[in-house]
Write a structure and sequence with these properties.
By secondary structure, this protein is α/β, with parallel strands linked by helices. The chain contains 17 helices and twelve strands. Residues about 295-305 have low confidence and may be disordered.
Length: about 375
């Protein structure tokens, strides 16, 4: 593992920096290592970076801790994902408060499939379990990866159903990769390493404290195309995840429940207040997401359509090896103005080269 990684991890350890200011420091200085080698006077001029933060940068303790973490990663075959890396989840990459660093163990490829988050109460009823399993079984042919939080109840049932029906599934953890919480889900987690994996922003030794789980929820919300709330009480982590997903402009769906049932109140509230669309099955989800008669594996050679202008080709090249791309990534990759990009996208849409999806995303036809 590179020296660059040492500074990337060390930057996440600086007290008072956080993900937003950490990215700001990197943008001003040109890289994580450059942050540590920049002059104090220059760092103090960066907006939002105070003297106390600058003093912390020059503490040898963070580099020592980062070295220890690199040894742990190497020993346990854990993959570090810096927010500028190609393998970092692209959907999450565009969220302002996304983690600078993620740690992943498993086989999943985050940027090659559709991503569906499935969350809900820890006190899942038989109805909730049935709806969860039915949904996932019906998504088998949609090239979907199931994402959840490996908690008791609906989360664990979603992972278990994905394993049962052969879908890749990723658990986002609220602690380090040196443990599994709850311990009862360790057998599921072990199987997921070969059919998906485990993802966290937390260093080894981080225990599952209460404040970690809302942070975990923002990762789930940010890395997906759609979130499905299966069952939820009026308050709880599933509703927090739904709120965050809405703030990220993700599509949110919920199964309705019987009036008066405690663990249907949350879903019914989301639907009633237009925070989630009502669904009864995967067909509803597929229709509302614009996935009908489309498959990420169905790719037609663009040269069969017509010759493309330079600007159109820049847009198509921005998709890389994938078939889906969001508007922020297209702006970043093409360097076109928003108005010009909108015009090019509209032309490609009319010609059937691209298909517009919810959430300002585009699919190659």
């Amino acid at each position: 593992m590179s020296d660059q990684l040492l500074y990337q991890i060390a930057l996440t350890l600086i007290p008072g920096v956080g993900d937003v200011n950490g990215k700001k420091l990197i943008a001003y200085c040109g890289g994580a290592e450059a942050v540590f080698k920049e002059k104090r006077s220059s760092l103090e001029k960066i907006p939002g970076i105070g003297r106390a933060t600058v003093n912390s940068l020059f503490s040898n303790g963070v580099l020592t801790k980062a070295e220890e973490e690199i040894l742990f990663l190497s020993k346990h075959e854990i993959q570090p994902l810096f927010y500028l890396d190609k393998k970092y989840p692209k959907r999450l990459q565009h969220c302002a408060d996304s983690p600078m660093m993620l740690y992943f163990k498993g086989e999943a490829k985050f940027n090659e499939m559709r991503m569906v988050g499935v969350v809900g109460t820890r006190n899942a009823s038989e109805y909730g379990k049935r709806m969860c399993e039915q949904l996932i079984e019906e998504l088998v042919n949609d090239q979907v990866m199931i994402v959840s939080g490996l908690a008791y109840g609906i989360d664990a049932h979603a992972h278990r159903a994905a394993l049962k029906f052969g879908l890749p599934t990723v658990g986002v953890l609220g602690h380090g990769l040196d443990r599994i919480y709850p311990a009862a889900n360790k057998s599921i987690a072990d199987r997921m390493l070969e059919q998906g994996g485990l993802l966290t922003e937390f260093l080894s030794g981080t225990i599952p404290e209460r404040e970690n789980f809302p942070k975990r929820n923002r990762i789930v919300a940010g890395m997906i195309d759609a979130l499905v709330v299966v069952e939820s009480a009026k308050r709880g982590g599933a509703l927090i995840t739904a709120d965050i997903a809405n703030s990220y402009n993700r599509d949110v769906f919920a199964f309705p429940g019987r009036i008066g049932d405690q663990y249907s109140e949350g879903c019914n509230f989301l639907i009633r207040t237009n925070r989630a669309a009502l669904i009864e099955n995967a067909s509803n989800l597929r229709y509302l997401m614009g996935w009908e008669n489309q498959s990420p594996k169905q790719s037609i050679q663009t040269k069969l359509f017509r010759a493309f202008s330079d600007e159109e080709q820049r847009v198509l090249d921005a998709f890389g090896s994938g078939n889906e791309c969001d508007i922020d990534e297209l702006i970043l990759q093409t360097n076109l103005s928003s108005s010009k990009l909108a015009a090019v996208l509209l032309t490609l849409e009319f010609d059937g080269v691209l298909v517009a999806l919810p959430g300002k995303r585009y699919l190659k036809a």
